[in-house]
Design a protein that fits this description.
Strand order of the largest sheet of chain A: 1-8-3-6
CATH architecture of the largest domain in chain A: Sandwich
CATH class of the largest domain in chain A: Mainly Beta
Largest sheet of chain A: 4 strands, antiparallel
Shape of chain A: globular
Oligomer: homodimer
Distance between the termini of chain A: 38 Å
CATH topology of the largest domain in chain A: Jelly Rolls
CATH superfamily of the largest domain in chain A: Jelly Rolls
Strand content of chain A: 15-25%
Chain lengths: 251, 251
Amino acid sequence: MGSLHMPPLDHDPLKIEPGGELPTQCRNCDIVREVAFCADLSHDEVKRLATVRCHAAFPASFTVFREGDASDHLFSISNGAVKLYKLMPDGRRQIIDFLFSGDIFGLGVDGGYCYTAETITPTHLCRFTHRKLDSLLVEIPRLERRMYAMAIKDLVAAQEQMLLLGRKTAREKVASFLVQLSRRAVQTGLPASPIALPMSRADIADYLGLTIETVSRTFTQLKRDAIIALPASGHAVLDNWDALRELAEGA
Amino acid sequence: MGSLHMPPLDHDPLKIEPGGELPTQCRNCDIVREVAFCADLSHDEVKRLATVRCHAAFPASFTVFREGDASDHLFSISNGAVKLYKLMPDGRRQIIDFLFSGDIFGLGVDGGYCYTAETITPTHLCRFTHRKLDSLLVEIPRLERRMYAMAIKDLVAAQEQMLLLGRKTAREKVASFLVQLSRRAVQTGLPASPIALPMSRADIADYLGLTIETVSRTFTQLKRDAIIALPASGHAVLDNWDALRELAEGA
DNA sequence: CGTATAGTTGATTAGTATCAACGCTAGTGG
DNA sequence: CCACTAGCGTTGATACTAATCAACTATACG
């Protein structure tokens, strides 16, 4: 798992497509601007931002950075999926968040990233150095406002996840997870119901504070109760939205 | 618990001491400036900030605001202790954070606070309206930077708490909690070892995702192992710091 | 001094983890 | 094209941690 066991790439993925003009280099930015941190910026500002940007493609299961690495860069997902996680010395793992198109990560404290970032699927990222970004903040005050808003959004989500981890049952956790993915899909213009589950059972387990066996059993249970269906690996159909939502909220 | 069952106060606590000159009105601000969000500001800037401030005293177990209330204000603790929590419909509770002198809360999303804030001890708070604060952000860019930094700090803490809630054992959770309180005490100039535990066992349990019985048993266990001592109610002595830290980290 | 509340301890249960086996799918090489 | 293999997911049996239920003790309060 991760870059340790990966064959060396024939190129450094971070070096692909150095920053340049926006329209040709970062086509996806237009698509994801609503959710990305470049939302609310004028065309000129986005162009200015593009000058400090670097676009790169990563394969699946690629470690972008590790917890403790110097936090030089801020990343924005053009498309693909990324997981952020923390590890304990004995290997226990907690996934902090699953990220998709338009999400940013690497928001930082000085002194190193506080989680590891690994791609789930093949992923395209925009990379910004914190140093250059900081100097841009003076030019574009709205960018600072935007980064603050993204940090608050992450904070609110983290607090909701604390409630899930500390107080919800396995069934409620899995239901919450599916509701969350569905809402996220709707926000990005995708349908609410057949949702993509690009992550493994192990990832879901480490996100919900469960084991893979419990996650698997809970999915089976929800299928038996006709609340969901899992027609193909990597996809879920939410057949009974109301039941799922009520379960998630613990009503 | 909370304002619902409290006799009505003989005055509105929020109306005490309306904003005015700093030195007389907010003596504690000088003490807590290192950690508070007014750190890094010039004397003039702090004075400017003081004009939009309102100081107020609250009794113990007082609900400052509830989850879902309109998020009009940002609060800063002059002295005292506050807990933030989320509730599920059936009463299950997750405490998001314990806050002390210099901490701020009410960082907000539009559309309401996403947790309830309740005092633990009698507490003095500074209150700022988000509206007035927003207009100040234009005047004092450093203030925005400061609020961003506080949000990031909270985010990092929340992520660490997710690891605790999702993957640590009861013993590790309690050890982590004590280590956390001790480090926080040191940051505010207090000794690392006899630490104050102003919150109830129920609060600790709801913070760590445990029951009061398990918290109590775990304390007893740590006492038997000579790692801590609980001489008086509300105080803990950390007799074996290394053992406690190793437990907390799961090594 | 009596009552109410918080905290501790014990007995039992329940929910999830652990251990183990098996099936499915996808990729590999003959 | 098909058997072989590896990894992922599912299911079953059992163990264990923490929750629940219950009783008791200590502390604070009127």
